[in-house]
């Protein structure tokens, strides 16, 4: 599933512009120094298509961020003098670290930011290999690339609730190159050196879509003849097995679900199949004999959903949908943000133990009511899917049940026919990535 890059200004979500400052005649100020200006532009328009899921990176199309999901508080640029996408250069040390905080950024009021004052950069004439980290203040000075890639970000966003969510950490999806050549005739303000960088959020998101029902998540209850006989009401949805102790700074790809042959700038595969695994810091240890300690709400510990004491009534009401948006005209609510939670290769037999232990679960409390009869309570649970691949992926397929960064898992309830159970449809939508166009030096 190939990432699609946005290359034109009108389509970019996030533009970093580093301008070489100059004297009045447009030449470089010094042979080894240049002033740097950063401009950051945030898109308000979606890009991409909708369609049946292939899951993963292209999945069910793309969607822009809302609320504070696009807010930029700081930008850190990591410049290397070796191609860090090559395995042989994994121990390359970062050569330059450029950090810009929110006090140095000016809001232009048109979805762009720029530095309040130009920044003087000492520059070498070579090819830089550039990574970007957004909204993270860690000092990467002196770090090897291998150390940076394996860093674990404990809090990929700030805020205890959906409404408070802010400061979403974002990192590069590929290595950008910035060729600074003495003989190129470039480097002046009028003819700068250029590159572009694409980043993605480390967080993922689960939405509950009201499609087919009212904004109160009330649906028609029908019999086998398709005659409406009452209502189905979702009373509550609880998410379990949400990993809470950190996400890798850079996305970890693996061909076999192990740490052998890791790469950090690949893809999950080509639609509609998923050929690579994505690893979280615990994936390789998620075995049938494991005992996870990183899920505050463990589904394995729930012995009986009807007696589970964490249910709240009601949570899915119209006022909750304000923390969300619309999808094809119907409202959805953001249930939760969550960290990457991926599963290793498993057999059918192993899945019966691994899924309850480690799979991200949605447990649903709903009621059916026919006419004036009393409402009847029902409880069910579902494992979220990432790779749809075929219409119904097997648990043995790579990444069939996982949560991967920068994806929106939008869940719609398909209400039950009398005597049956509800089902869920899951759209795996990519949050629009930010393309940092034009790093000018």
Structure description:
With 441 residues, the chain is mainly beta. The protein contains two helices and 26 strands. Strands 4, 5, 9, 11, 12, 13 and 26 form a seven-stranded antiparallel sheet that branches. A six-stranded mixed sheet has the order 3-25-24-14-21-20, with no helix packed on it. Strands 15-16-22-23 form a four-stranded antiparallel sheet, with no helix packed on it. The protein is elongated. The protein starts with 32 loop residues before the first strand and ends with a strand.
In short:
This protein is mostly beta strands. The protein has 2 helices and 26 strands. The strands form 7 sheets. Strands 4, 5, 9, 11, 12, 13 and 26 form a 7-stranded antiparallel β-sheet that branches. Strands 3-25-24-14-21-20 form a 6-stranded mixed β-sheet, with no helix packed on it.
Task: Give the oligomer, counting copies of the same chain as homo and different chains as hetero.
Answer: single chain
Number of helical segments with 4 or more residues: 2
The SS-based structural class is mainly beta
Beta-strand share of residues:
25-35%
Mean pLDDT: 76
> Which ranges are low-confidence, i.e. pLDDT below 50, for 5 or more consecutive residues?
1-30, 34-38, 40-59, 318-322, 433-441
Mind telling me the C-alpha Rg? 24 Å
User: What is the N-to-C order of secondary-structure elements (H for helix, E for strand)?
Assistant: EEEEEEEEEHEEEEEEEEEEEEHEEEEE
Helix content: under 10%
Main sheet properties: 7 strands, antiparallel
Distance between the termini: 33 Å
Question: Tally of extended strands?
Answer: 26
Shape: elongated
């Amino acid at each position: 599933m190939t990432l699609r890059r946005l290359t034109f200004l009108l389509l970019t979500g996030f533009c970093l512009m580093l301008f070489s400052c100059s004297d009045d005649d447009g030449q470089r100020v010094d042979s080894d120094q240049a002033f740097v200006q950063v401009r950051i532009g945030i898109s308000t328009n979606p890009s991409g298509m909708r369609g049946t899921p292939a899951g993963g990176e292209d999945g069910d199309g793309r969607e822009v961020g809302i609320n504070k999901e696009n807010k930029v508080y700081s930008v850190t640029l990591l410049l290397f003098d070796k191609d860090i996408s090559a395995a042989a250069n994994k121990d390359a040390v970062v050569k330059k670290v450029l950090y810009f905080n929110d006090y140095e950024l000016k809001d232009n009021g048109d979805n762009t930011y720029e530095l309040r004052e130009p920044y003087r950069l000492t520059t070498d004439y070579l090819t830089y290999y550039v990574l970007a980290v957004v909204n993270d203040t860690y000092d990467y000075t002196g770090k090897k690339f291998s150390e940076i890639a394996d860093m674990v970000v404990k809090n990929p966003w700030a805020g205890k609730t959906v409404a408070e969510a802010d400061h979403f950490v974002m990192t590069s999806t590929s290595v950008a190159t910035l060729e600074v050549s003495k003989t190129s005739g470039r480097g002046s303000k009028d003819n700068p050196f250029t590159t572009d960088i694409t980043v993605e959020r480390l967080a993922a998101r689960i939405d509950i879509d009201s499609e087919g029902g009212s904004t109160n998540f009330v649906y028609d209850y029908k019999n086998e003849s398709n005659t409406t006989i009452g209502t189905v009401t979702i009373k509550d949805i609880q998410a379990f097995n949400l990993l809470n102790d950190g996400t890798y700074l850079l996305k970890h790809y693996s061909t076999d679900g192990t740490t052998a042959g890791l790469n950090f700038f690949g893809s999950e595969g080509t639609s509609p199949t998923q050929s690579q695994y994505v690893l979280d810091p615990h994936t390789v240890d998620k075995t049938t004999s494991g005992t996870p300690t990183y899920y505050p709400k463990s589904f394995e510990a729930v012995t009986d959903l009807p007696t589970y004491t964490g249910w709240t009534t009601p949570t899915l009401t119209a006022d909750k949908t304000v923390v969300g948006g619309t999808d094809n005209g119907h409202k959805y609510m953001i249930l939760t943000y969550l960290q990457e939670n991926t599963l290793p290769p498993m057999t059918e037999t192993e899945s019966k133990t691994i899924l309850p232990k480690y799979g991200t679960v949605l447990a649903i409390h709903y009621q059916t009511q026919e006419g004036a009869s009393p409402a009847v309570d029902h409880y069910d649970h579902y494992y979220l899917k990432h790779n749809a691949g075929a219409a119904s992926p097997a648990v043995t397929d790579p990444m069939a049940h996982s949560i991967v960064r920068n994806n929106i898992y939008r869940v719609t309830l398909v209400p039950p026919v009398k005597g049956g159970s509800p089902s869920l449809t899951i759209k795996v939508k990519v949050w629009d990535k930010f393309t940092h166009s034009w790093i000018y030096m």
